[in-house]
Write a structure and sequence with these properties.
The protein is α/β, with parallel strands linked by helices. Helix content is 17%, strand content 39%. The strands form 3 sheets. It has an 8-stranded mixed sheet with strand order 3-4-7-10-13-16-18-17, covered by helices on one side.
Length: 323
């Protein structure tokens, strides 16, 4: 039977977002389009500080061979927050050469800012997944806060890093032509039989971690957060040393005694939750690597570190994945 509808010319799994700033200073979602299996939702009354968009997929994840490509333009002085409503599930691959993938391409213009705080990716046993996120930013004034994390799988079913392969790459380039690479972060987690360390299972190599992630911070909007993360890392207790050196804090109104008490309390929670983290300053970025014994422990730690600045600059809805 011939369909009465005009054939679609849209490719599956494609989406586009465009955000601008209307006078005097109102964030505006000018474009929102998507095709199955991708779905995008934005609240009808966004925060006055940023446009909030939910990234969803029908069925809550990607089945074998699904490919999603999302592009976004954050125009001058606008702000965009991208969140999810739950972990992105990666279902078992039909065969090891059938890959599920997600690609994100974002342009962040002068004075604009992007906050990407999704729930962790949850790869099921036997899944194969690749993710690439590319950000083109104004070299001097654009701001980024990007969280990219992956969990061990379905613990209720006894899964512990039982997927075939998980690959994630984050790149940041300048908007100016010719584009210049500012940062590249690449994570490759291969299952058994795919690593030079074949005598060790992926589970054993992860050393009882339930989640592993990367936090990328850049730009003037997050200067205090970058400083805070760097100084808190330098203040961590070192092997053979005392309780860590003192440092400034982005909580300028807080006394040094209060800072030390908060820091000590957080160090105790980090030990209890099995939190391991490191921070490095690279070309104007601060890159944080974090591992934890539980997803909830990592969620609580990240929320404590970023909540104040994200709520202030993007609104509390931007923190949904950390609640």
């Amino acid at each position: 039977m011939t369909s009465p509808f005009t054939p679609s010319t849209s490719a599956p799994g494609r989406g586009h977002i465009s955000v601008c700033l209307l006078p005097p200073s109102t964030p505006h979602l000018s474009t929102l389009s998507y095709t199955y299996p991708l779905k995008l939702i934005s609240p009808s009354h966004p925060s006055q500080r940023a446009v909030l968009v939910f990234l969803l997929s029908y069925g809550g994840g990607l089945v074998s061979g699904d490919a999603v490509t999302l592009s976004a333009d954050v125009l001058a002085n606008a702000r965009l927050a991208l969140v999810t409503q739950g972990s992105t599930k990666i279902f078992k691959a039909r065969s090891p050469d059938v890959v599920s993938s997600q690609t994100l391409n974002v342009r962040v213009e002068a004075g604009a800012a992007l906050c990407l705080l999704p729930d962790p990716v949850q790869p099921f046993a036997g899944s194969v997944y690749e993710q690439r996120q590319v950000f083109h930013v104004d070299g001097a004034t654009a701001s980024l806060l990007v969280l990219d994390w992956v969990s061990e799988g379905r613990t209720a079913r006894g899964e512990r890093w039982d997927f075939e392969s998980w690959r994630g790459k984050n790149e940041v380039w300048t908007l100016e032509k010719p584009a210049r690479l500012l940062l590249r972060d690449n994570v490759i987690l291969n299952g058994d039989g795919q690593s030079p360390l074949d005598q060790f299972t992926l589970e054993s190599r992860m050393d009882n971690l339930a989640i592993f992630g990367t936090l990328i911070v850049r730009g003037p909007l997050f200067t205090t957060l970058s400083t805070f993360l760097t100084e808190e890392f330098l203040a961590l207790p070192r092997i053979g040393s005392g309780s860590g050196s003192g440092s400034r804090s982005w909580h300028n109104e807080t006394s040094s005694t209060d800072i030390d008490e908060k820091r000590t309390s957080r160090h105790q929670r980090e030990q209890a939750d099995g939190i391991l983290w490191t921070a490095a300053a690279v070309r104007g970025f601060v890159v944080v690597k974090i591992g934890a014994k539980s997803v909830e422990g990592a969620r609580n730690w990240i929320r404590e570190m970023v909540q104040e600045v994200v709520e202030r600059e993007f609104g509390e809805g931007s923190l949904l994945c950390l609640r």
